[in-house]
C-alpha cells in the first residue's frame, strides 16, 4: 500500500469514527462535512495526485463516510462532479428536517444519488408537500414512506406524482394509506409507459376493461410486473399446461405474483401426477407442508 493510500485509509477510518453511521445513530448533519474533512491527513497528500482536485477528494470521502458508493453515485449522477460540498450539506440538512435519519442515507442516496444534486425548493420540497397534502401522510411518517420508496424524492410532484395519483384514483384506488405505505412504487410509475400498457395487456388476453381494472385493484402488484418476462410466459403456461379458465385469473390475479419456475410449474406438476383436484389459489398460496397434506387429502 502506498503512503497516499495508507493516509486515505487512516483518514477514512478516523472520519467514520467522527461521523459514525451505525444503525443506532440518529445524529444530525449540523456539522458541515468540509469543516471535518479538511482536518484529516488525506488532503495533505493532494500533491501526490495533482490530477484529483481537493474538492473532488472531499466529495468522494464525504459520500463514502455516509455509506454511499461514490463510484456508483458519480456514474449514475454525473452532475455530482460539479456539486459543492455546501450544496450537498444543505440537502442533507433539509432531509433531516423532514424526519430522515443519517442511518437512512446509505439506502436512499445509494438508490437515488440524483437527490444530492436536486434543487430543494423546486424538486424536493414539492415532493414532501405532495406526501403531506395529497397523500395525507403525517409528518412523523414521512421517513417511513421515503424509506419504502426512495424514488419518490427524484420524481416530479407536478409531472409524475400528481398525474399518477389522479390516474390511480380514477381507476378506483381510494385508499390513500395503502398507496402511501404499501404501494408507493405505483406513484413513481409512468402512467403512459407502465400503468396503461399493463391494463391494455390484460384486455388483450380476453378480459374486459372493467375486469382488468378489478384485477389490479385486487392485486396492485400487477402494475409492477413485466409484460414480456412475467405476464406472457405465465399466461402461456396457464392456458397450455394448466388449461385454466380466464375466470380463475380474474378471481385470483395473484397468480402472476408467483414464480413460474420455483412455484407454479413444480406445484402444478405435483398436482397433475397425484391426480388431485386443487383450486389455483390453494395450489399456490399454501406452505409446502400444507400443500403435501392437500395432495394427500384430495386424491
Written account of the structure:
The protein has 299 residues and is mainly α. The termini are far apart. Helix 11 (191-204) crosses helix 12 (209-218). The chain has helices spanning 3-18, 33-37, 54-65, 70-76, 85-97, 105-111, 120-134, 142-148, 157-171, 176-181, 191-204, 209-218, 227-242, 246-251, 260-274, 280-285, 288-298.
Helix/strand layout:
Blueprint: H1 3-18, H2 33-37, H3 54-65, H4 70-76, H5 85-97, H6 105-111, H7 120-134, H8 142-148, H9 157-171, H10 176-181, H11 191-204, H12 209-218, H13 227-242, H14 246-251, H15 260-274, H16 280-285, H17 288-298
Helix pairs in contact: 7-9, 11-12
Global shape: elongated
Tally of helical runs: 17
The separation of the N and C termini measures 68 Å
Proportion of residues in β-strands: under 5%
Class of secondary structure makeup: mainly alpha
* Total count of strands: 0
* Mean pLDDT reading: 86
Helical content band: 55-70%
Amino acid at each position: 500500500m502506498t503512503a497516499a493510500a495508507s493516509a486515505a485509509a487512516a483518514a477514512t477510518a478516523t472520519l467514520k469514527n467522527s461521523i459514525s453511521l451505525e444503525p443506532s445513530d440518529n445524529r444530525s448533519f449540523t456539522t458541515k462535512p468540509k469543516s471535518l474533512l479538511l482536518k484529516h491527513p488525506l488532503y495533505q497528500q493532494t500533491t501526490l495526485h495533482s490530477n484529483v482536485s481537493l474538492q473532488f477528494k472531499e466529495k468522494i470521502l464525504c459520500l463514502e463516510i455516509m455509506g454511499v458508493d461514490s463510484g456508483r453515485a458519480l456514474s449514475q449522477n454525473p452532475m455530482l462532479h460539479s456539486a459543492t460540498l455546501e450544496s450537498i450539506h444543505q440537502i442533507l440538512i433539509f432531509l433531516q428536517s423532514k424526519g430522515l435519519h443519517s442511518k437512512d442515507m446509505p439506502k436512499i442516496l445509494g438508490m437515488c444519488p440524483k437527490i444530492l444534486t436536486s434543487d430543494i425548493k423546486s424538486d424536493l420540497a414539492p415532493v414532501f408537500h405532495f406526501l403531506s397534502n395529497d397523500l395525507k401522510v403525517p409528518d412523523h411518517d414521512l421517513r417511513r414512506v421515503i424509506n419504502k420508496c426512495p424514488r419518490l424524492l427524484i420524481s416530479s410532484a407536478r409531472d409524475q406524482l400528481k398525474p399518477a395519483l389522479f390516474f390511480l384514483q380514477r381507476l378506483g384506488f381510494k385508499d390513500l394509506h395503502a398507496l402511501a405505505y404499501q404501494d408507493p412504487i405505483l406513484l413513481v410509475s409512468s402512467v403512459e409507459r407502465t400503468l396503461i400498457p399493463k391494463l391494455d395487456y390484460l384486455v388483450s388476453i380476453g378480459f374486459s376493461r372493467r375486469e382488468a381494472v378489478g384485477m389490479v385493484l385486487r392485486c396492485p402488484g400487477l402494475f409492477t410486473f413485466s409484460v414480456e418476462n412475467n405476464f406472457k410466459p405465465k399466461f402461456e403456461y396457464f392456458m397450455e399446461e394448466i388449461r385454466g379458465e380466464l375466470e380463475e385469473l380474474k378471481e385470483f390475479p395473484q397468480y402472476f405474483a408467483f414464480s413460474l419456475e420455483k412455484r407454479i410449474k413444480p406445484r402444478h406438476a405435483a398436482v397433475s401426477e397425484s391426480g388431485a383436484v386443487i383450486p389455483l389459489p390453494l395450489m399456490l398460496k399454501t406452505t409446502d407442508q400444507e400443500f403435501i397434506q392437500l395432495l394427500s387429502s384430495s386424491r
